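FAQ

Q: What does a record look like?
A: Structure on top, sequence underneath. For example:
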């Protein structure tokens, strides 16, 4: 360390304060385009129009703990001064699992990692019901290896444990960089695991406009080049902080070191691909509770007579926008490879019973409208490969506004499931009310 000793409270309370000045503008309108009439002895009055800009919303005030330096950290032989350099960024896009820039990762690897992650959770921890992207399913890796952002896969979910609740997020990437030096403000403790992994632990908090969120994180640097960050907070995604992080330090360490989560861990035989993406086929729909989803799942589970799929039909969830319920599976019946999607929404208007686009429509005795149509498309993937796609869809709309879309897509020469089978699936859940 340097002989020059910095102040102990190097940053003090970190408070983000933003100010702004609103300046009112005026527009002067004067003069006329015609001569004044003789009886007018004074010029017409000048009119001033004052335009006041809308006030900008106040910038949130963030407060985080101060960083003390010099300091000692258990497990560290030396501690470096905190750095003020921070980078923020994001990479957006649908992505594909089989990214050639990351040969260690694939769709099957993502499923294997997700299975290992769920198995590492304490038995009394429950995952909250939610979309696939909040069910601990690892996402595709976006970005290139030399990009400052991206290059990782992550999984997240809301957790419930007893009376407490919070979030869990896990990020995994491959790196050839050495284990970094201990830096004040970034960790509270450094451990060496029996397998040679270096594990950093950190508890902290942040206040946003006076509301404090607690977080606990573990960063594992594993011998195979895995960099795994496991973080838990006391703030579920749709409610206020509970005051208790649902996972302990030792539990987070166990997750970070779990077999199957590292980049070099093998994929177990029989591991399948991630589920296809699924979106509810309407612009808006009320949310459905877990009890409604359970009833729908039970009905759908028995609706696939003679049809084999890569995973059971009967795991409907809200889509990524939190709308309705949705599930997509791959049909694996010999000679009929295709993708089957079930989408359920509520609060929908009754459709026009006139057939559209060469389809058909009929009304059943109870007032339910059943539509059917066939469509053909030319599709292209990110590699430029094109294919002809054959799509069959059945849409069922009940008088109370429940809408159930069942779609089967197949690349020719394969054909989608017949209309009779799709209609049987659509009729299985019955009327759904949120």
């Amino acid at each position: 360390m340097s002989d020059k000793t910095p102040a102990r409270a190097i940053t003090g309370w970190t408070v983000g304060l933003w100010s702004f000045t609103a300046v009112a503008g005026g527009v002067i309108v004067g003069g006329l385009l015609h001569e004044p009439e003789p009886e007018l002895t004074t010029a017409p009055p000048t009119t001033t129009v004052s335009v006041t800009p809308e006030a900008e919303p106040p910038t949130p005030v963030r407060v985080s703990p101060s960083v003390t330096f010099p300091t000692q950290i258990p497990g560290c032989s030396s501690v470096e001064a905190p750095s003020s350099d921070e980078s923020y960024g994001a990479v957006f896009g649908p992505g594909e699992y089989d990214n050639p820039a990351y040969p260690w990762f694939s769709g099957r690897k993502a499923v294997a990692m997700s299975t290992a992650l769920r198995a590492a959770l304490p038995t009394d921890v429950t995952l909250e019901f939610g979309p696939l992207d909040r069910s601990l399913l690892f996402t595709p890796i976006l970005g290139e290896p030399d990009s400052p952002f991206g290059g990782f896969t992550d999984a997240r979910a809301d957790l419930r444990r007893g009376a407490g609740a919070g979030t869990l997020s896990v990020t995994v990437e491959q790196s050839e960089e050495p284990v970094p030096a201990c830096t004040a403000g970034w960790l509270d403790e450094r451990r060496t695991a029996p397998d040679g992994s270096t594990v950093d632990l950190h508890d902290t908090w942040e206040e946003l406009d006076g509301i404090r969120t607690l977080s606990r994180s573990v960063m594992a640097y594993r011998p195979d080049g895995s960099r795994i960050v496991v973080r838990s907070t006391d703030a579920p995604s749709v409610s206020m902080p509970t005051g208790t992080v649902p996972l302990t330090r030792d539990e987070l360490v166990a997750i970070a070191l779990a077999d199957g989560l590292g980049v070099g861990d093998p994929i177990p035989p029989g591991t399948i691909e991630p589920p296809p993406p699924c979106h509810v086929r309407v612009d808006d729909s009320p949310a459905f509770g877990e009890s409604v989803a359970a009833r729908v799942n039970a009905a759908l589970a028995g609706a696939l007579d003679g049809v084999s799929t890569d995973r059971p039909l009967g795991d409907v969830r809200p889509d990524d926008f939190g709308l309705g319920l949705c599930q997509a599976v791959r049909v694996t019946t010999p000679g009929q490879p295709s993708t089957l999607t079930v989408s359920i929404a509520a609060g929908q208007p009754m459709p026009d019973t006139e057939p559209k686009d060469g389809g058909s429509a009929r009304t059943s005795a109870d007032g339910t409208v059943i539509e059917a149509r066939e469509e053909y498309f030319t599709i292209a993937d990110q590699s430029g490969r094109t294919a002809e796609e054959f799509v069959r869809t059945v849409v069922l709309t009940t008088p109370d506004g429940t809408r159930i879309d069942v779609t089967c897509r197949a690349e020719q020469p394969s054909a989608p499931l017949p209309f009779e089978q799709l209609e049987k699936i659509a009729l299985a859940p019955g009327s759904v009310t949120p």
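Q: Is there anything notable about this one?
A: The CA atoms of residues 231 and 383 lie 35 Å apart.
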